[in-house]
Amino acid sequence: MPFRRRQRGTGFINPAPLSSAPLYGKIGSAAVCLFVTFMRSYAPRAPDLSQRTGKKEKRMILFGFFHYFGVVVMKTKSNAANGERGYKNMNGFNYFYNNQAEKFAYYRIPKTLFTDERFAALSTEAKLLYGLMLDRMGISRINGLIDTLNRVYIYFTLDEVMACFRCAKEKANKLIAELDARGIGLIESKRQGLGKANIIYVKDFSSCG
Asked: What is the fold of 112-202?
């Protein structure tokens, strides 16, 4: 350990470089504080430093040490209590308790897409995209996107697919192709022209026996 110079004008060792060293942990820092307190008690003082000032200095050091140690102990107990209650795991995510799982919004993907053999050829991402489109159906119905035949339609652009799946244009086209007439036929696209987004009809997955 390199030699620490004393503060100018006093006979004491400067504790800041020791206590701020990155190699010391919590226990190491406490040991350094004790070492500094010892050295301040026995190190020769400057001639102009009174005995009263020296006692006050030592009291301040001891108070700082016990305050630091108390904060460390309380923080350790708090973290242990949180761990026992399950508030945090190693990755920093919380657990669900009681009815907490019901306070979030979820995308609903039909179980039939995973259990029925008719949809076995669909990729998992295509099934997820169908679930996203079903969710969009509820918003479209509320917004009155219903044609003259009383059919609900949605807008789901290619750019939205790319944003949802963090994929390139080619991958987004492939997912849509799995669902439209080129694939299983769960959706139907209708061009509007003039640079407008296509209208998409999401078909009922349970209607075809």
From this structure: Arc Repressor Mutant, subunit A (1.10.10)
Residue 192: the pLDDT is 85
Q: d(Cα 184, Cα 68) in Å, to the nearest integer?
A: 67
Where is 200: in which H helix or E strand? strand 199-202
Closest to 127 measured CA to CA, from 140, 108, 141: 108
Q: What is the pLDDT of residue 196?
A: 85
**Distance from C-alpha of 102 to C-alpha of 93, rounded to nearest angstrom:** 17
Using 50 as the pLDDT threshold, list the residues of the chain that sit under it. Answer: 3, 12-13, 18-24, 46-47, 49-50, 72, 86-87
What ranges do the domains of the chain cover?
16-85, 112-202
How far is CA 55 from each of CA 8, 37, 43, 49, 91, rounded to the nearest angstrom?
19, 11, 13, 11, 47
Name, in order, each residue with C-beta under 8 angstroms of 195's C-beta and a sequence gap of 6 or more. none
Residue 162 · residue 122 · CB < 8 Å: no
- Three-class SS state of 182: coil
